[in-house]
Amino acid sequence: MSLLNFRQDGPPDLAERSAETAVTRLYEAHALDLVRLALVMVGDRPTAEDVVQDSFLGLYRRWGRLKDPDKALTYLRSSVLNNCRSVLRRRGRRLPGVQDPPVASAESRVLDREQGREVLDALRRLPHKQRETLVLRFVLDLSEEETAQVMRVSRVTVRSNTSRGRTALERMLGETP
Amino acid sequence: MNVERLLKDAAAAETRDVTRESLPPLNLPVGARRRRPAGRWTVPVAAVLTVVTVLAVTVVLRGVLRGPETLGAHEGPPFFLATHRKGGVGVFDSWTGRLIDDIPARTGHYAALALSGDRRTAFLAAETAPCRTRIDKVTLRRDGTVATRTALPGRYNAQVDEMAATADGGRVAIVFYDPGDCGDFDDLTVVEASSGTSRGWRLPPQTAESMDYVQSPAWAADGRSLFLATNAPETPRPERDGFLLRRLDTGTTDTTLFHAPVVLHSVPDLSSFRPSPDGRTIAAIQQNTDDLGRFGSISIMKVTLSDRPESERSSFPELARMTERQIAPAAPVDFRATLDATGRHLLVSSRHDRAVFRMDDGRFRRLPDLRRSDLGLIAW
């Protein structure tokens, strides 16, 4: 089972709460998963945390325009992906390594992490649409419909990007279909 | 181990140290929230809805009265190109599936391909290293065998997403993407095949709110105008946003993609655009899947470009349809589909079942001898 557990219940009933309270509760409920999402996308933790903070700040500023508070989580996921993309566009250099392995890491854990970095390096070379689709579908375990909502595209596009992204990753990683 | 599992494990390893306790607190600037006056959008939204309703009724009535046009007999393209797992591109007989010729990658692997309308010129994008792309021009004989292969002058410090060749193979449009570390590059480049000279266009600067993209380039018959799909403006109903089809005049000096006029706002997701010679209609593919993403059918749609492109279109006349029943027993997953230059011939590759299907003027066929399971991108 994945260590990432992004599938959680939707946000609590927030309609009657103030923006500050509502957004703070959303942060408490979902910040962990969103930082992990951002970390997978951008590759370093400080940036990932900044991205998530910016997304929550954006939600806070737009709270009055949010017609359906139940869509707040969808908005946040979408915003995090957008902010990650902006960060990646601004970078004119190779992605840095994520974090050093823990001092007490076992050899197997280091090997796992190195292998994982190879996979994520390949993931980060995909077109952003494919990269985001694969992360939402296979890392966050979102459904095709949920992924379509976050990315504001149709399910057909999600399916197309999934197929193309999977093919490209297989090729880069030397996997057999 | 499959890709899904690899990604899950890699993400888990990468985020192992991110715990709830280690997260910083949320910092909200109290009083910084902006408010929008209530009712500000009521009048414009009502006006737009009125226009959309009138035009939608008009379009539906016209479609009912005219009905779908009948496709005539056609031989169809004799061969198609497909990337394969060794990194090269194969030329395959599109009736038997036989490998006609192989174009191995000299360095790296081919990541995108485009075929001219006359099927005598192919452009292959070779990804030689991260953020390093070379474009090879391949001339093909009438039987599909390779005559020459040359590299276009220049290298591109980005990675290619899609390409489109003009009918005569004189120009190629290249859509680039940003894998995150390529630095500065154009989102779209048009290259003259004879000289290697190029021009670039860009999307507007990205913001936190924007989801801008460009995809599915397709040349008009004049070899100067380029159709391309971009994102539609966000609305409260994202599932209805669809995309905007723009017509870019590549002869102008403008370098901003979003300045290209919109010729269609489509709600359905279409791809593989094939403009008619007069540029008034476009054939395109619409893939229909169920809620689980399983193949239902692939249709060839006829899109008539509107004089009022700001009104969204929800449906189009269907010219032909390939159904799940026809491709059975192939598993309804992992397909690639493309139209030929005329828009009358559909090629569908099932990577899962080593099968390729074609539809010519509405007639379904299954290629008999294709036993490869490693076909990737296809061009017809």
UniProtKB/TrEMBL annotation, chain A:
Annotated Gene3D superfamilies: 1.10.1740.10, Winged helix-like DNA-binding domain superfamily/Winged helix DNA-binding domain
Identification of the protein by name: Sigma-70 family RNA polymerase sigma factor
Molecular function as annotated in GO: DNA binding; sigma factor activity
KW DNA damage (keyword) present: no
Annotated GO biological process: DNA-templated transcription initiation
Domain of life: Bacteria
Residue span(s) of domain RNA polymerase sigma-70 region: 26-94
Domain RNA polymerase sigma factor 70 region 4 type: 117-169
UniProt keyword terms in alphabetical order: DNA-binding, Sigma factor, Transcription, Transcription regulation
SUPFAM superfamilies: Sigma2 domain of RNA polymerase sigma factors, Sigma3 and sigma4 domains of RNA polymerase sigma factors
UniProt cross-references to PANTHER family, sorted A to Z: ECF RNA POLYMERASE SIGMA FACTOR SIGM, RNA POLYMERASE ECF-TYPE SIGMA FACTO
Pfam families: Sigma70_r2, Sigma70_r4_2
Family the UniProt entry places it in: Belongs to the sigma-70 factor family. ECF subfamily.
Disulfide bond found in the keyword field: no
InterPro entries recorded: RNA_pol_sigma-70-like (IPR039425), RNA_pol_sigma-70_dom (IPR014284), RNA_pol_sigma70_r2 (IPR007627), RNA_pol_sigma70_r4_t2 (IPR013249), RNA_pol_sigma_r2 (IPR013325), RNA_pol_sigma_r3/r4-like (IPR013324), WH-like_DNA-bd_sf (IPR036388)
